[in-house]
Design brief:
Strand content: under 5%
Number of helices: 24
Structural class: mainly alpha
Order of helices and strands: HHHHHHHHHHHHHHHHHHHHHHHH
Radius of gyration: 24 Å
Distance between the termini: 43 Å
Oligomer: single chain
Largest sheet: none
Number of strands: 0
Shape: globular
Length: 532
């Protein structure tokens, strides 16, 4: 019985690899390539022990660095710097890769009706899930091994290299299991991805909060995060390979539970019952339909970004205390403007990160148009008096106005908590709310690119996620990677004025670029056929 349940798994693995013959190599090259370029850049930037010692004295005393990058466990070696600068982001990206791949080959296939057709052939009940897990988990392991080989090729310690590579792969394995489980919960692939993505976001916040809290805070929060587990491996420092067993155990349990649930539900259905709609139609406009489809995502993102703001706002005050407790650091900080300057730099980094995160929501809102089109729900709607312009505008509004709402909640969380801590809510709330909202024009540009792809090149709408990823890497890692200025300028977030020095010029021309892109997307969709 067990053997027959997996019949056809090999064929489905080959099918998945064929379908992802472009996507998976891009992920592999991206993650391995960034590992190589980061190592090369850090080798040039911190080539002396003196420069590394200075970095070691400041990195672990800066709440912004700790929240963004985690602790620097070994500043004396190049490998330790690579793990600190790239480890958290490598884990974050490989988690996104894993959950997208698993959902694509499980729940999305069921939603499209293809799994039912495949099940009518000689294919076991566990074969689709097994194939997705093999592809996502195997790709994660391949990325981890290649990262280790790249580091060894750069002359770094083999044990530390494999500790880092396997720790990255372990995050991919965990989220392969997470996505395998969330794919059993809902009938909709978007909901499955949203639940898995929400879990990733929450665990990332646990990691950030635990790291930013410092030695006197709740560092145990990092043990609640798979990305935090990679930090506890302490690659190039202690090389604690035993921590990888936690990730492996989580992977086995999650996949095992998912395999059990597969045999207890019907194909196409999920554990969470789909809520029935009203007995009579209540939607009379395209905007009403868009609100029905998008409100859950908007509310979820707003609450999530508010929570992010609360967490980051709560650790900002710790910057000044670190300066007081560390005289050496205090002397360094005085040279750059004192503790207030460090707090401002912290908020500048955090609000930029919030802007980058919000762009994910904006792209998601725009691409709902493509999802409705390919699901053949747009054509019947547009056969009514609803215009193409009105239909596109109804969803684009959630990218434009909804993006402002999401960022406003983020700024609200930052300003409220930080203002309460220092006893100046009236002064801090407007400043940090504004600092979050100034990221909006750059996020609009990213959304404009997504709409251009939808309107003119619908078969390439997936490139929108590449635009988000590239913007994230360039903005956060571009200076460390010693990229040319013209490359760094590709990201719209590079041009957003840094808090607290906000000027209107860059915001106006970013908004102008966004308007042009959105207009091109509208015009393109009006002139093309549907489902092309």
């Amino acid at each position: 019985m067990i053997g027959t349940a997996f019949i056809g798994s090999g064929h489905l693995v080959r099918l998945a690899l064929r379908r992802d013959r472009i996507l998976l190599p891009v992920w592999v090259l991206f993650l391995v390539g960034i590992t190589y370029s980061t190592t090369t850049a850090l080798e040039e930037l911190y080539g002396t022990q003196q420069s590394r010692a200075l970095l070691g004295a400041t990195a672990n005393a800066n709440s912004a660095f700790l929240a963004m990058l985690g602790p620097l466990n070994d500043w004396s070696s190049l490998g330790g710097l690579v793990v600190w600068r790239w480890g958290v982001f490598a884990g974050l990206f490989i988690a996104i890769m894993a959950l997208l791949v698993v959902t694509r080959h499980t729940r999305a296939e069921e939603e499209a009706g293809r799994t039912e057709l495949i099940a009518a052939t000689v294919v076991g009940r566990h074969a689709p899930l097994a194939a997705a897990v093999i592809v996502a988990g195997g790709t994660s392991l391949l990325i981890g091994v290649l990262q280790a080989l790249v580091l060894i090729g750069k002359g770094l310690d083999a044990a530390g290299s494999f500790a880092f590579g396997l720790s990255t792969a372990s995050v991919g394995l965990v989220f392969t299991g997470v996505s395998a489980f969330t794919a059993q919960l809902s009938e909709n692939s978007r909901v499955s991805n949203a639940i898995a993505g929400g879990f990733l976001g929450v665990t990332y916040l646990f990691r950030a909060a635990g790291d930013a809290a410092g030695e006197s805070g709740p560092q145990w929060l990092t043990w609640l995060s798979p990305i935090g587990w990679t930090e506890h491996v302490r690659s190039f420092a202690d090389n604690r390979f035993w921590v990888l067993g936690i990730s492996l155990a989580a992977f086995v349990v999650l996949v095992g539970v998912s395999a059990y649930v597969v045999t207890r539900r019907d194909v196409g259905l999920g554990l969470l019952a789909t809520r029935l709609g009203p007995s009579e139609g209540t939607i009379g406009t395209p905007f009403g339909l868009a609100w029905r489809l998008q409100k859950g995502s908007l509310i979820g993102w707003s609450l999530a970004l508010f929570a992010v703001g609360v967490i980051y706002g709560s650790v900002a005050q710790a910057v000044g205390k670190m300066v007081e407790d560390n005289p050496t650091l205090g002397q360094i900080v005085q040279q750059i403007g004192g503790a207030d300057a460090m707090v401002d730099a912290f908020f500048a980094t955090v609000t930029q990160l919030l802007g980058l995160i919000s762009s994910i929501y904006l792209v998601q809102a725009v691409l709902r148009l493509r999802s409705e089109e390919t699901s053949l729900r747009a054509e019947p709607l547009l056969a009514t008096p609803v215009s193409r312009w009105g239909w596109v505008a109804s969803h684009a509004a959630f990218a434009l106005v909804g993006g402002a709402v999401v960022l406003a909640f983020a700024g609200l969380g930052l300003g409220l908590v930080h203002g309460l801590q220092i006893g100046d809510v009236g002064g801090e709330l407007p400043k940090l709310l504004g600092a979050a909202l100034v990221q909006l024009p750059a996020a609009w540009v990213v959304a404009g690119v997504a709409l251009v792809l939808f309107g003119l090149f619908p078969q390439f709408t997936g490139v929108s996620w590449a635009v988000v990823s590239v913007s994230l890497v360039i903005t956060l890692l571009g200076p460390a990677l010693r990229l040319s200025q013209w490359v760094i300028d590709v990201s719209p977030f590079t041009h957003v004025p840094k808090y607290p020095d906000i000027v209107a010029g860059p915001l106006l021309w970013l908004s102008g670029v966004a308007v042009v892109l959105l207009a091109a997307g509208f015009a393109g969709f009006r002139r093309r056929d549907l489902t092309t």
